[in-house]
Design a protein that fits this description.
There is one protein chain. This protein has 312 residues and is of the alpha/beta class. It has two domains: 55 residues, no CATH class; 249 residues, Metallo-dependent phosphatases (Purple Acid Phosphatase, chain A, domain 2, 4-Layer Sandwich). Helix content is 37%, strand content 21%. The chain contains eleven helices and 14 strands. The strands form three sheets. Strands 4-3-2-1-10-11 form a six-stranded mixed β-sheet, with helices on one face. A five-stranded mixed β-sheet has the order 5-6-7-9-8, with helices on one face. Strand 1, helix 4 and strand 2 form a beta-alpha-beta unit. The chain is globular and about 70 Å long. The two termini are 25 Å apart.
Amino acid sequence: MRKSMAEEMREKDADRAAFLKRYESVYGKDATAKEVARGKRGEAALENYAAELIAARATRTSRILFVPDTHRPLHDERAWQLMLSAARGWKPDTIVILGDFADFASVSSHAKGDPRKRLDMEQELASVLVGLDELDALGATKRVYCSGNHEHRLRRTLGDKVPELYHSLTAAKMFKLAERGWEHSEYGETYRLGKLNITHDLGEAGQYAHMRAAATFGGCAVIGHVHSMGLSVVGNVKGERHVSASFGWLGSEKAGAAYMTRAKMRRNWTTGFGTGHMEANGTVHLQAHPIIANRVMVDGVLYDGSSNRKAA
């Protein structure tokens, strides 16, 4: 039976990957086409093949999945599953949680309402661990957890009421981030990924907060916190272009009820997530992915949440 074009492409890519790995082990990652070909005494076909592989490597990008504020266990499970479905198809190399992955409603200073409906810490922790397990299963080689103001709720509560536990009971330890292989950036810190500055917030909110973050850093920036979705490109007198973004959220309306009315929430906050392609030089090309009618588009592929599959 004749192989399909997709099968031929997959086999070709696999052959190329094996070839490149073999020759990099001999010549190093910075080997030139001429150096590679010299190992086979100048075979023209091999020299051309090596040149093609090295050129492809120079333009290859790594894929980044940005997970915005999720507020587990008060998350939107349908939107969460759709993001996971898209991520399984897209196969990110890096995952970055932008903060407020956990809500920590149990230690919030906001009014908690009916005591019978309150969450306890055990419920919240269980939900976060499930979410991290699902992200771990995506197979990304690099994973970064940037804490947000909601993770900081725990530290603030302990500092005020049980200071003896301030350093021993942290979100990072409760979530077992180190054991899982996640890097951790504390709330208020900035994580640098390539040329991109990543932080939960800089003490500001609103739909233009990502633009103000880029201005503060004097460079490209991605933030969480605001739950709105926006992407902006601004230049400077040097001719540089600074890209900034916020990627919405994956929380439920129940999570937002303590902060604003449902009407304002639906108007100002967008359910979705973000991705990026990072070049070898550290430049990151950002994309925002709003979830509309339980569907989302990622790199030209439409994922349908109603059937948890790629749309036809």
